[in-house]
Design brief:
heterodimer, A: 289 residues, mainly alpha, MetI-like fold, 2 domains, 74% helix, B: 367 residues, alpha+beta, Rossmann fold, OB fold (Dihydrolipoamide Acetyltransferase, E2P), 6-stranded mixed beta sheet, 5-stranded antiparallel beta sheet
C-alpha cells in the first residue's frame, strides 16, 4: 500500500518536472540561439546550423555592436545610446518611484475630501495608450524647451509612470494601519518625519516591485524614444532598430544578435538582482501586529 | 483644577451625528472609563481628546489649557492603541524612545527613561527585539512603555486589552490597576467590556448613541442605574427586567410576581414618594441575578418565593437558574449545592432592598 502511494507520488513528480523542463527549454531556446549566433563569425552562420555550437567562438560581433556598428549615418555602435538609456532610466525610475510613494502615502494616511476621486483619476492614467498623448506631449516638451533631449524623455516617463507607481504604493500603504501614523503623530512626528521614519522603512517590498516595473517599462520603451528624441540623444531601443535596419550589403546576424542582447541585458540584470527581494517582499514583510 | 474637561462636544460625519453634547470633567489622578456598545461614539470621543479628530463644536481643556485647536503633539498626552501600533521597523528600545527623540530629549536622558520604563514593565530583556518577535502580551507592555516614557499629563487607552486572550487580559487588567495606583496618573480608558469598566474605573461614563447616559463612580452606576440601558449594560448576566404593577398594600407599596407556584410579594422600599404616583400602573422592576438566590436561613428584606426552574447553567462558583415570573424569564444566581433539577420547584430568596423601578415608556428609573 505504502509502496504504491510512493510510486504514484514519484510518477506525479516526474510528470510535473517534465512539464516544467519542457516549458523552460521552450523559453530558453531563443536566448540560446541568440547567444550562439552572436559568438559565431559570419561565414559560420551562413553555413552552419542555427542550433549548433560555434566552432571558432569570437567576441568580434560584440565588439562591433558595442563600438563600431552603423546606426543610420553614424558608425559608433550602441555605446553612446546605451548610456543615453541609462541616463534616462535611472532618474526616471527614481523620480517616478519617489512620487508614487509620496502619492500613496498622502492618499492612504492623510485622506482629504476628494482623495478617492483623485486616485481614480490617477488610475485612469494607467489606461491611456501612449499614442494618445504623443502630440500634446510634443507641444508640452517644446514649451518647456526639453524636446529632443534625454531630459525630455525622463520627463515623459515620469509623468507616464506616476499613475502606475501611485497605484502600487497606494495599494501597499492602504494596509498600513491608521493607528500607526496616529501613534507617530501623538509621539510628535510630523508629515515628513512619519513618511521617512515610519512609512518608507516599511516599503522595500513595494519599492522593488515599482523599480522592476518602471525599469522594464522605460528601458524597453520604443515609441516615446523614437518620437521625442533625435540624433545622438536616442535611447538604445531606437538605436537597436536603426542598427538592424541599416545594412551595408550583407546582413550581419551576429552583430544584430549581440546588439539585441546588449539592449536586453540591463532588464535581465535587474530581474536577477532584485527578483530575490521581490519574492521575499511578497512572502514576508507583513505589517500586521 | 480639572485634569480634563470636555465641554459640550459635538461631532458629526456628514449627516450622522456621532457625539451629541458631551460634558465630562475629571480630577488629576482619576481613572475615567468610557464604556458603551460599539458605535456609541466612545472611540471618537477619545480621538477628539487626543486631537486625532476635530470636534464639530465644543471645547476640550487639559489642565488649565484649552487644547481644542492644538495638534496631538502639543496636547501633552500619550495613547495606547488597540492594535498597539508599534513601529514595525524599530526595535523595542527605539519604539519607546522615538517620542523622546522627536522632542529632542538629550541622549543620556532618553537611555535613562527607557531603562526606567523597561524595569517598571519588566521588558528589559526585550529591548533589542523587533515588535514582530514579541507575543501579544509583550507588545501590549511595549505599547504601555512607549506611553509611560513620555510622562504625559493624560494617558489615553483605546481598548488596549481587547486583543489579548482571556487569561492574559485578566492579568494585564490587574497590572494596569496596580500601575495606575503607583504612578497616580490621569487616565481616559475606552472599552466595551463592562468588567474592565467596573474593575478599573474611578469614574465611568456609560455611552450610547453619542450621549453619556450616566456618569459616576462604578458602584453608584451599578446600584442606581439611571435608565434601563445602563442597568442592562453593566453586570453579567445582566439585570432582570420584570414587568409588574405597583400596588398599595397594608405593609406599604409593593408589586406581585406571578410565578410557577404562587404569587411573590415584592415590597418597594426606595423612592416611595415618586412611586406613589404609580399605584395601579405598570412599571418595570430591575433585579440583578445575584439579588435572587437560594432561600437563605436568615430573614430581613428577603422575600421567599417558590419558583419552577426552567434552565440551569453552571458557571463554577455558582449556578444560574432561569425561572419565569410575570411571563418574563428571570435569572437567579444560586449556590450549586442547593441546585435542583430542571422542571422542579425551588425556594428562591429575593433581596428587595436593591430593586430599581423603571418607567416602561421612557425606560428611565423612577426616583
Amino acid at each position: 500500500m505504502n509502496k504504491a502511494v510512493g510510486r504514484q507520488h514519484r510518477a506525479g513528480r516526474l510528470f510535473i518536472y517534465g512539464c516544467l523542463l519542457l516549458v523552460a527549454v521552450y523559453y530558453l531556446v531563443p536566448l540560446f540561439v541568440m547567444i550562439m549566433t552572436s559568438l559565431k563569425p559570419l561565414d559560420e552562420i551562413r553555413t552552419g546550423s542555427l542550433l549548433g555550437l560555434p566552432l571558432n567562438p569570437t567576441l568580434e560581433a560584440w565588439r562591433v555592436a558595442w563600438g563600431s556598428a552603423c546606426t543610420g549615418v553614424s558608425c559608433e555602435g550602441l555605446k553612446g545610446y546605451f548610456w543615453n538609456s541609462v541616463f534616462m532610466v535611472v532618474p526616471a525610475v527614481v523620480i517616478s518611484t519617489m512620487i508614487g510613494a509620496f502619492n500613496g502615502y498622502v492618499l492612504t494616511q492623510w485622506r482629504f475630501r476628494g482623495s478617492d476621486v483623485l486616485f481614480g483619476a490617477l488610475l485612469l492614467g494607467c489606461f491611456i495608450p501612449f499614442q494618445v498623448v504623443l502630440l500634446p506631449m510634443a507641444r508640452t516638451l517644446g514649451f518647456l524647451g526639453i524636446s529632443g533631449s534625454v531630459a525630455g524623455l525622463v520627463f515623459v516617463h515620469v509623468i507616464y509612470g506616476v499613475a502606475f507607481t501611485t497605484l502600487f504604493f497606494r495599494n501597499f500603504y492602504v494596509n498600513i494601519p491608521r493607528e500607526l501614523t496616529n501613534a507617530a503623530r501623538i509621539d510628535g512626528a510630523g508629515f515628513w518625519l512619519i513618511f521617512f521614519r515610519i512609512v518608507l522603512p516599511l516599503s522595500p517590498p513595494i519599492i522593488v516591485v515599482s523599480v522592476i516595473w518602471q525599469f522594464t517599462q522605460i528601458w524597453n520603451d520604443f515609441l516615446f524614444g523614437v518620437v521625442y528624441s533625435a540624433g545622438n540623444q536616442q535611447p538604445i531601443t531606437v538605436a537597436l532598430n536603426n542598427l538592424v535596419n541599416t545594412s551595408t550589403g550583407v546582413k550581419q546576424y551576429n552583430v544584430d544578435m549581440a546588439a539585441a542582447i546588449i539592449a536586453a541585458l540591463p532588464t535581465l540584470v535587474v530581474y536577477v538582482v532584485s527578483g530575490k527581494y521581490f519574492v521575499r517582499g511578497l512572502t514576508a514583510g507583513s505589517v500586521k501586529g | 483644577m480639572h485634569a480634563l474637561k470636555i465641554e459640550n462636544v459635538y461631532k458629526s460625519f456628514g449627516d450622522t451625528e456621532v457625539l451629541k453634547g458631551i460634558n465630562v470633567a475629571i480630577e488629576p489622578g482619576q481613572f475615567l472609563i468610557l464604556v458603551g456598545p460599539s458605535g456609541c461614539g466612545k472611540s471618537t470621543l477619545l480621538n477628539i481628546i487626543a486631537g486625532l479628530e476635530a470636534a464639530t463644536s465644543g471645547h476640550i481643556y487639559i489642565g488649565e489649557r484649552e487644547v481644542t485647536n492644538l495638534s496631538p503633539k502639543d496636547r501633552d498626552i500619550a495613547m495606547v492603541f488597540q492594535s498597539y501600533a508599534l513601529y514595525p521597523n524599530m526595535s523595542v528600545r527605539k519604539n519607546i524612545s522615538f517620542g523622546l527623540e522627536i522632542r529632542k530629549v538629550p541622549k543620556a536622558e532618553q537611555r535613562e527613561t527607557v531603562q526606567r520604563v523597561a524595569t517598571m514593565l519588566q521588558i528589559e530583556d526585550l529591548l533589542d527585539r523587533k515588535p514582530s518577535q514579541l507575543s501579544g502580551g509583550q507588545r501590549q507592555r511595549v505599547a504601555m512603555g512607549r506611553a509611560l516614557a513620555r510622562d504625559p499629563s493624560i494617558f489615553l487607552f483605546d481598548e488596549p486589552l481587547s486583543n489579548l486572550d482571556a487569561k492574559l487580559r485578566v492579568e494585564m487588567r490587574a497590572e494596569m490597576k496596580e500601575l495606575h495606583q503607583r504612578i497616580q496618573s490621569t487616565v481616559v480608558y475606552v472599552t466595551h467590556d463592562q468588567i474592565e469598566a467596573m474593575t478599573l474605573g474611578d469614574l465611568i461614563a456609560v455611552m450610547k448613541d453619542g450621549i453619556i447616559q450616566q456618569f459616576g463612580p462604578p458602584q453608584v452606576i451599578y446600584n442606581a442605574p439611571k435608565n434601563m440601558f445602563v442597568a442592562g449594560f453593566l453586570g453579567s448576566p445582566s439585570m432582570n427586567f420584570i414587568p409588574a404593577v405597583v400596588e398599595q398594600t397594608e405593609s406599604g407599596l409593593g408589586a406581585f410576581l406571578e410565578g410557577g407556584a404562587g404569587r411573590i410579594f415584592i415590597p418597594l422600599v426606595h423612592c416611595t414618594q415618586a412611586l406613589k404616583a404609580w399605584v395601579g400602573k405598570a412599571v418595570v422592576l430591575g433585579i440583578r441575578p445575584e439579588q435572587i438566590t437560594h432561600a437563605p436561613e436568615h430573614e430581613g428584606r428577603i422575600q421567599i418565593g417558590v419558583c419552577r426552574i426552567n434552565r440551569v447553567e453552571l458557571t463554577g462558583p455558582d449556578a444560574l437558574v432561569t425561572t419565569c415570573l410575570n411571563k418574563t424569564d428571570v435569572i437567579a444566581r444560586v449556590q450549586p449545592s442547593s441546585l435542583c433539577q430542571v422542571g422542579e420547584t425551588m425556594a428562591l430568596g429575593f433581596d428587595t432592598s436593591m430593586i430599581v423601578a423603571f418607567d416602561p415608556a421612557t425606560e428611565e428609573a423612577i426616583v
